[in-house]
Amino acid sequence: MCVWPVIKPILLKLGGSLLEWSELPQALDQLISRIDEPLALLVGGGKMADCLRDWHHRHRSTEESSHWRAIQVLDLTCDMVRDLNPRFLKWANIHSPWSANPIRKMVWVVQPLKYLESTAIAGSDIFLPRNWSSTSDSIALKLASDWNCSRLLLLKSCDLPHGDWDDCARTGHIDPAFPLLLQSLETAPEIEWINLRNFAPPITNS
What is the dihedral angle through the alpha carbons of 36, 100, 193, 80, rounded to the nearest 10 degrees? Predict the structure, then answer.
């Protein structure tokens, strides 16, 4: 009988603003090299999502149609980041990548469209509204919870602001749905905020 070892996968959420940073490949590789657990990476929409938001306001498209276009943008930015490193592998399935291969250390770059379509069909996205109040931060939190990740690392362009997650939502550092989704989770991952532009200290594995 084959017994799989207990694993504690980690989900990385790469902020879209970091897509404009020329040192992103080196900083991301440095961070990942210090983590031993299986990894999945979700990428924000950056300026492409901002363009969709502007289109929504200018042409009055519906909130839900804009939401799904933004999800398609996340598929695109994830594919872009996958090209940064030959060790990055694309993952576009509903279930977690380590459910199929729980031993090998890999870096899976997640295209979330199929997963989010499945949560919408199942009605399990109550705290993930299909509008601009839920963006890639909340999607990452939902993924990390559903995929039993031990940690969610939010890779940002700034230091963690003072206050709680509600304060961060009020100041626009995370999306408004994030605190409500976090409160709804029976078992939430440990959440860490990392200013990747100033990344220096190692991540210690517990």
Answer: 100
Of 94, 88, 48, give the one whose Cα is nearest residue 72. 48
Among 19, 139, 151, which Cα is nearest to 81's? 19
Question: Rounded to whole angstroms, how far apart are CA atoms 141 and 105?
Answer: 21
Closest to 40 in 3D by CA, of 130, 93, 91, 107: 107
pLDDT level of residue 206 (50, 70, 90 thresholds): very low
CB of 152 within 8 A of CB of 187?
no
Task: Take residue 28 and report the two structure tokens written for it.
Answer: 């991301």
Q: In the 8-state DSSP scheme, what is residue 18?
A: G
CB 82 within 8 A of CB 39: no
Helices (H), the chain: 24-33, 46-59, 63-82, 113-122, 136-146, 165-170, 177-184
67-90 residue pLDDT tens = 889 999 999 999 999 999 888 999
